[in-house]
Amino acid sequence: MPELPEVEAARRAISDHCIGKKIKSSIIADDSKVIDAGGLSPSEFQASLVGKTIVAAHRKGKNLWLQLDSPPFPSFQFGMAGAVYIKGVAVTQYKRSAVSDTDEWPSKYSKFFIELDDGLEMSFTDKRRFAKVRLLKDPTLKPPISELGPDALLEPMTTDEFFQLLRKKKIAIKPLLLDQSFISGIGNWIADEVLYQARIHPLQVSSSLSKEHCETLQKCIKEVIDKAVEVGADSSQYPSNWIFNSREKKPGKAFVDGKKIDFITAGGRTTAYVPDLQKLTGEQAKKAALEPKEQTSDGDEDEENLEGKKGNKSKPKKAQTKKPPAKRKGKATSDNDNDSEDDEMEEKKVAKGKQSKAKVETSDKPKGRQSKNSKKT
User: Is residue 73 within 8 Å of 141, Cβ to Cβ?
Assistant: First the structure.
């Protein structure tokens, strides 16, 4: 799903090509699941944009919004597969959301389309319909943006601030990093990467981390995000020593720098880590030493579902081994990283419902009653 680097790449593309231009026409999809215009119809949404000039493009965490010369402003919550396209401009094509150049334009998956006065066209697409497009007077004053913590790129904490905040958190470090009210912009792959680079176990209790560990983790967050943003979220340019490059391989075949990658569940998310380098410390290490080791499960798995529930203060449970997220072919990630929680949970409910329906339809039919002709006379 799009995380901070992907959304920042979209923001920069808009800033480079659309600022100062007037909106000539607009097409808003008639899709109430994605479009939230505060009671306005798609045609009214369109009318509110036409004739306006794009003044700036802003981002916080994994949210993007366009500042026009007068409100209201359109905002975009990318969900699992939201993507920005500018015709003729190379914008990062997120995994599972790429729209082919040969597809119709605007794409049938387009939810928000504008044509500018110089002929340039921009579209926000969403194949999986978990994104949100809103029309707001001030996006920063409304959820989800108003509920976000400091942006991981634009509003870094000092080491002391970071350390003091972690000391108060009794939950595992992985789900804490995914909590968008704590730090905004970090999703599943970034959390795995920074913890690997910092050599911190995903289930280590946040409050147990030393100041040195906190300083290292903070440094790794900055380095990973800076690099991903620098290359425009082009994963082919990520360093070869990143766990990112192997996190979707099958158990037993996933390695980084010669070290085996295992998969567990942390904060409800499939989590890639290197046991040889990321070890539990303190009391957690002592308890782990007394517990029997579990083997990593085999096979593929659907995309992980939950990302760090806000307010989850339960103590980390014993690590459960998990399969890595399976790659999906031909498929296109409010913005609390609880995005993916709601998105994946909804997907699974739908799938479960379909399975239940199928079982009913294919179950054995009840035995019929005897026909009248078979009754005794």
Answer: no
Distance CA 194, CA 205 (A): 16
First to last CA, the chain: 71
- Examine the pLDDT at 247 and tell me if it is beyond 50: yes
Query: What residue spans define the domains of the chain?
Result: 4-147, 159-273
Helix (H) or strand (E) holding 66: strand 63-68
3-state secondary structure of 79: coil
What is the model's pLDDT at position 102?
73
pLDDT value at residue 325: 53
Residue 131 neighbours by CB distance under 10 Å: 31
Q: Exposed e or buried b for every residue in 58-90, given b needs 16+ CB within 10 A? A: bbbbbbbbbbbeeebbbbbbbbbbbbbbbeeee
Q: Which residues contact 56 (CB under 8 A, 6 or more apart)?
A: 15, 19, 66, 67
Tell me the pLDDT tens digit for each residue of 188-245: 999 999 999 999 999 999 999 999 999 999 999 999 999 999 999 999 999 999 999 9
User: Which one of 60, 62, 309, 322 is the catalytic residue?
Assistant: 62
Specify the higher pLDDT residue, 48 or 252: 48
288 vs 185, residue with greater confidence: 185
62 in active site: yes
CA distances in angstroms from 54 to 24, 37, 118, 156, 201, listed in the order given: 11, 19, 13, 28, 44
Q: Is 121 a catalytic residue?
A: no
The hierarchical CATH code for the domain 159-273 is 1.10.8.50
Burial 326-338 (b: 16+ CB within 10 A, else e): eeeeeebbbbbbb
Second CATH level (architecture) for the domain 4-147: Alpha-Beta Barrel (3.20)
Which residues does residue 367 pair with via DSSP β-bridges, in sequence order?
none
pLDDT exceeds cutoff 80 at 352: no
Q: Phi and psi for 264 in degrees, rounded to 5?
A: -130, 180
